[in-house]
Amino acid sequence: AQSVTQLGSHVSVSEGALVLLRCNYSSSVPPYLFWYVQYPNQGLQLLLKYTSAATLVKGINGFEAEFKKSETSFHLTKPSAHMSDAAEYFCAVMETSYDKVIFGPGTSLSVIP
Amino acid sequence: DVKVTQSSRYLVKRTGEKVFLECVQDMDHENMFWYRQDPGLGLRLIYFSYDVKMKEKGDIPEGYSVSREKKERFSLILESASTNQTSMYLCASSLTGAYNEQFFGPGTRLTVL
Questions:
Q1: A24 to chain B nearest CA, in Å?
Q2: How confident is the model at residue B85 (pLDDT cuts 50, 70, 90)?
Q3: In a mutagenesis test of the A interface, which of B8, B37, B46, B57 is the best target, namely the one with the most A β-carbons within 10 Å?
Q4: Residues on A contacting B at a C-beta cutoff of 8 Å
Q5: CA dihedral angle for residue A42, residue A48, residue A51, residue A57, rounded to 10 degrees
Q6: In the predicted model, what is the mean pLDDT of residues A93-109?
Q7: Which positions in chain B touch A34 (Cβ < 8 Å)?
Q8: Strand partners, B76
Q9: pLDDT for A53-81, tens place per residue?
Q10: Would the CB atoms of B102 and A44 count as touching at under 8 Å?
Q11: What string of DSSP letters covers B29-52?
Q12: Percent of chain A with pLDDT over 70
């Protein structure tokens, strides 16, 4: 079965600093990968998705992620953190059957002024 | 604008009560999902449905049932609520297909006393 791990349940960065959220997946076949964000008291919304067209994927709000097959990783980055980026971030991998998505445990991002 | 709505944002019930959580989507999506979200555990799939009257068990179906009589509506039922079912419940929907993102409702925070 596919699985997702996210290193660090909580990450703190200063405003303007680089954001790096780590995601590793296990999959025996080329995966479909996603990053979702959850702002306080809201549901999840899609940040970006890997569709195999390009290894570097750009998403909303200045986020991007790089697919590295050799490392089975899909880390999320943003060059300069903003206060509004404070949220919970989930990495996810899709199972090809029944469109099921396996979510990682999430990383809570805090941005310090 | 796509929309997934859930019948309640907050719900308080007593142990042993039958609880209904309703989810409605207006995007004509084939797939619908129920997750529960707990700190440190991420999202865990309870049930999903890929067509009207069709349902599949997810990872943690025990103590829950579902109903999908119409394409746009997916109900989660707790037959006899217990305190360990206190959680955030998230509904999502998606089109069929590998790269299709899931759209989430705002969640229902259920407390069972």
A1: 15
A2: very high
A3: B37
A4: 9, 32, 34, 36, 41-46, 49, 51, 90, 94, 96, 98-101, 103-106
A5: -170
A6: 83
A7: 101
A8: B21, B66
A9: 788 999 999 999 999 988 999 999 999 99
A10: yes
A11: -SEEEEEEEETTTEEEEEEEESST
A12: 93
Q: What is the pLDDT of residue A29?
A: 67
Residue A98 has pLDDT above 70, yes or no: no
Contact residues for B107 (Cβ-Cβ < 8 A; gap 6+)? A41, A42, A43, B6, B9, B37, B88, B89, B90
Per-residue pLDDT tens for B20-43?
999 999 999 999 999 999 988 889
Structure-token pair, residue A66: 């790089």
Residue A107: which of A35, A24, A8 has the closest Cα? A8
Distance of CA A62 to the CA centre of its chain: 13
| Residue A13 in tokens | 């960065």
CB A4 within 8 A of CB A90: no
Under the banding of pLDDT at 50, 70 and 90, the label for residue A16 is very high
The tokens for B80 are: 């006899």
Residues of B (34-93) whose Cβ lies below 8 Å from A: 35, 40-45, 48, 50, 56, 58, 90, 92
